[in-house]
Amino acid sequence: MTWLVTGGAGFIGAHVVHALHAAGEQIVVLDDLSTGVPERIAGVEDVPLVTGSVQATSLVAQLLRDYEISGVVHIAAKKQPGESVENPLLYYRENIGGLESLLRAMSEVGVDSLVFSSSASTYGNQDTDVLTEDAICRPESPYGETKLVAEWLIADVARVSGLRYVNLRYFNAAGAARPELADTGAFNLIPMVFESLTAGKAPRIFGDDYPTPDGTTIRDYIHVADIASAHVAAARHLASGADARHVLNVGTGRGSSTREIVEAILEVSGHTELTPEVHPRRAGDPAVSIASAERIARVLGWSAQHDMRAIVADAWEGWLFHHPEARRET
């Protein structure tokens, strides 16, 4: 099969492109380069990069025809919950409008296989620690809402067409398969701690009075290389001709506390002299959020291969690649 990967020059998208290529798949990348970096996929042989928006329906349809695309991996999206609260119209335009445009082009050309990048943000706050795909979703940001609405839209289209799909709900993506592929933003815990260390400041922990063993929140951190391999498994499942209409968590099924993550970062980075500063809880942070990884193992035969320590170490090497000023003399 030949796959169109939207957002393929982004952090997760580039990892997916590299993983699909290593698995022997033919790939075409569409990215508007608003946040994507062409160099992330520059070394991947025979992978065309087309600069453009997924909202350009005619462009997408033309790509599907010209490259004889048989399936789409749709990763292109806005993805910052905080930004989505400040600018919900942007998120609905990009995330829902972009998907609607893509589905119209796929329907027009007759492409019936879709791997969609969803998010654990669809769940919001839940009454249980381990989240299964059957949970009633209560997203708490426009970002999470757009991912849930996107899943509904995909299911609605599938009900009246031959569309087959796998929606992948990522948990907390981190790490890097190679330093040059690392995320360059600082919007999540691990890079935010790196940013503090680079500035010579103590890392911050928001709340140490949660009902958890060490009082800090617990999250399921998943290596981005494992997320990429989940996309390969989903793509191959669709390529097999399976009548697939799945929503699957992508996580480890294990949790790490904020304090455990911060202490691992201090050790890996050599900043053990620093003591984390505890600040008040942030509104809306659940105490525990862990993926149930049973369904994806059953449906795709997939499981995560990296532990928390590997995630932190690989993320730090990636941070040093993009921020050499953070490197300490040894």
Automatic annotation (TrEMBL):
Domain of life: Bacteria
Transmembrane annotation, as ranges: none
Catalyzed chemical reaction(s): UDP-alpha-D-glucose = UDP-alpha-D-galactose
Alphabetically ordered keywords of this record: Carbohydrate metabolism, Isomerase, NAD
Pathway in which this enzyme or protein is active: Carbohydrate metabolism; galactose metabolism
Entry-linked Pfam families: Epimerase
Keyword Transmembrane: no
EC number: 5.1.3.2
GO biological process: galactose catabolic process via UDP-galactose, Leloir pathway
The keyword Isomerase belongs to this UniProt entry's keyword annotation: yes
UniProt domain NAD-dependent epimerase/dehydratase: residue ranges: 3-251
Cofactor(s), by name: NAD(+)
Single GO molecular function: UDP-glucose 4-epimerase activity
Entry's family note: Belongs to the NAD(P)-dependent epimerase/dehydratase family.
NCBIfam families registered for this protein in UniProt: galE
Protein name (database record): UDP-glucose 4-epimerase
